[in-house]
């Protein structure tokens, strides 16, 4: 299985969790962006359920040391 880049995976997880928290306050269920993020998380982690995808993503991210942002030279 290919392993997604940690920065890409972190972005997916952060955006999905933020959106899920916002949508939990409403009663309409997940919107199109949340469904897209859930699908991408599942594909990226080789799972078929967003809960399992989030668990796998967190495990993958815990295994990678934090990297400092790249320095931009002027």
Structural notes for this entry:
The chain has helices at residues 6-25, 32-45, 50-63. Helix 1 (6-25) crosses helix 3 (50-63) and helix 2 crosses helix 3. The model has no long low-confidence stretch (mean pLDDT 87). 65% of the residues lie in helices and 0% in strands. It has 74 residues and is an all-alpha fold. It has 3 helices and no strands. The chain is globular.
What's the gist of this structure?
The chain contains 3 helices and no strands. By secondary structure, the chain is mostly helical. Helix 1 (6-25) packs across helix 3.
Which characteristics define this entry?
74 residues, mainly alpha
- Following the backbone from N to C, one meets helices and strands in this order, namely HHH
Pairing-aware structural class of the strands and helices? mainly alpha
Which blocks of ≥5 consecutive residues have pLDDT under 50?
none
Please state the overall shape, judged from the principal axes of the Cα atoms. Answer: globular
Radius of gyration: 14 Å
Q: Quote the average pLDDT.
A: 87
Number of helices: 3
Largest sheet descriptor: none
Architecture blueprint of SSEs:
Elements: H1 6-25, H2 32-45, H3 50-63
């Amino acid at each position: 299985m290919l392993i997604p880049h940690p920065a890409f995976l972190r972005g997916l997880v952060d955006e999905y969790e933020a959106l899920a928290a916002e949508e939990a306050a409403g009663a309409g269920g997940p919107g199109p962006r949340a469904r897209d993020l859930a699908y991408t998380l599942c594909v990226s982690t080789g799972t078929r359920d967003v809960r399992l995808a989030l668990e796998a993503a967190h495990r993958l991210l815990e295994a990678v040391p934090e990297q400092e942002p790249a320095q931009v030279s002027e």
